[in-house]
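Example 4.3 (complexes with small molecules)
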Amino acid sequence: MSDREETGALEYHERTSHTPRSVRRASPGLDFENKPRPYKIYEALPSVELPEAIRSPQQPALSVITQPGPDGEEGRAPDLEALAGLCYYSAGSTKRIRRGGREIEFRAAAATGALYHVDLYLVVGDLTDLDAGVYHFDPRALSLDALREGDYRGVLATASGSEAVERAPVTVVTTSTWWRNAWKYEERTFRHAFWDSGTVLANLLSVAHALDLRAEAVLGFADEPVAELLGVDPAEEAPLELVPIGAGGTVPDAPEPEPIDPETRPLSDREEEHPLIQEAWRAGVLPDGEAAREWRSAAVEASLGPPRTGDGERIALDPVDHETESKRPLHETIERRGSCREYDREPISFRKFSTVLERATRGTPIDARDPGGPALAFVEAYLIVNGVEGVPAGAYRYRPEEGELERLMAGEFREEAGHLALDQRLAADAAACVYFTADLDRVVDTLGDRGYRLAQFEAAIAAGRLYLATYAHRDLGGTGLTFYDDLVTEFFSPRAEGRAPMFLYTLGRPA
Ligand SMILES: Cc1cc2nc3c(=O)[nH]c(=O)nc-3n(C[C@H](O)[C@H](O)[C@H](O)COP(=O)(O)O)c2cc1C
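Answer. The structure with flavin mononucleotide bound is encoded below.
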């Protein structure tokens, strides 16, 4: 995988990095007249209504947000009600807020700019109460648009070479419709695709776990056949991840899918082109199922090396056990989650802080990760701690294997934290800022440009779980934030030298 083209992921990353200068120079103002709708609306497809009374996942969020392996009962398949819960609690409209005379809709998972460019498709075999077919989840109507009739799961099995997909009664496919996010974020949307699908999948995997359904995120698949199956053009909308749900039997061979191009309502008057998104996407395309299988094995084997050790002072985290953890149910945690807009500077409890970090980073069922390997396989977390009871303010590296923080620098770094986060006060006021970082040169050397997607995604799904673990506690709040890339690396250097920040999450006490 060393014959990468020059216009690959690393160059994309470099060219879309934020610096104080690039942010000052960013294009002025947004054209609200041309803002894309946050939905995909098909003009003429039959639809299947999802049950209105959704079975809400009652288990405590803290018990179900993490499952390092695919988990779930063998032979178990979802029914329509389970599918409704899976879709609603990961990509559904959970609240509406009136602001400035306009009603704004918010969804189950955090998303950059609340632009909601990630859609869910379901590729389904015959279920007890749903015919085999390919469907699109419509969060507006809480229904499924029927794109194809028949059992096409074999297309995904062949495209991915994944055993989990081969055995799943249903596979969810996530996509990003670039323009829906690029209207505001332009070329950076390719990063946001993995950030925003990561938060959605943190929810989806948790709900699947709560329903005792096997589920994992599959990043290795041939892109074109999946796009063709969904009837989407990757120049506009591209598949990001597959999530096989449930396990039992083997999917039958699929019929050759006829090309489809269902009519959809325009997103806005005009759409602008963003060539770097296309290039970054194309650079990571896998040609066929065999390539996907090879990529997956290489990723599972790729030991990106033991985390760099240092001799900084260690602080052992002290998470609560399942007996004494907060019992806030998963459904309530998701319904009440909303990115914190202001923190006060009151310190948060060390035990809650420990619990949030520990539960969110126990390892994720990703096809490209060895379930027996390190909890965070491709990323490392660095922190600025300014307000956690009993933890001296400072910069730290989190060592999930040991359950410890290792101190890199002592001191209060509120001003620095605010500056690193594009000069946003939220980061200065937060109790802690968590920066997931990756050694991108090494990731891309080992796993090609597809590895870039993986590093972004592993960071994002851990951050999505941090959101859930935070909101499992009634007195905590959190939010993802954007950052100046190189300044974050510099701040944590020399330890973080050569590492690039992928995702920044902050938590604290909401004001
Ligand atoms: C990856 C990511 C980055 C974000 N960056 C910022 C940010 O820089 N500033 C900010 O105020 N909010 C940021 N947010 C929060 C979003 O604005 C918020 O998720 C969105 O408005 C939806 O609202 P909700 O999370 O309350 O449902 C970010 C969220 C994510 C997932």
